[in-house]
Amino acid sequence: MKILKITQLFLLMAFVTCSLDSCLKSNLPTAQNGYFTSSLVQEASITDLGLVSDTVRKLMVIIKGFKYTLTNDYGTFLQTGAVVEVELSSNKDGIIPSGKYIYTSSNSTNPFTFSNAFISDGAGFIDISNGSITVSSNNPAYSLLFECSFADGEYFTAKYNGGMLYTDNYK
Question: Which of 10, 39, 124, 142 is 20 to 30 A from 55 via CA?
Answer without folding.
Answer: 142
